[in-house]
Amino acid sequence: MANDLEPTDDEAIPLILGRNLRRLRTRQGLSLERLARVSGVSRAMLGQIELGRSAPTITLLWKIARALEVSIAALTSTSAQEGVVVLRQSQAKTLSTADGLVLTRPLFPGDGDRRVEFHEMLLHPQAAEDRAPHPAGTVEHLVVAVGSVEVTVGGARHRLERRDAILFDADVRHAVRNLGDGDALLYLVLSHGENDR
Question: Please, which residues have CB within 8 angstroms of residue 171's CB and are 6 or more apart in sequence?
Answer without folding.
Answer: 133, 134, 135, 136, 137, 138
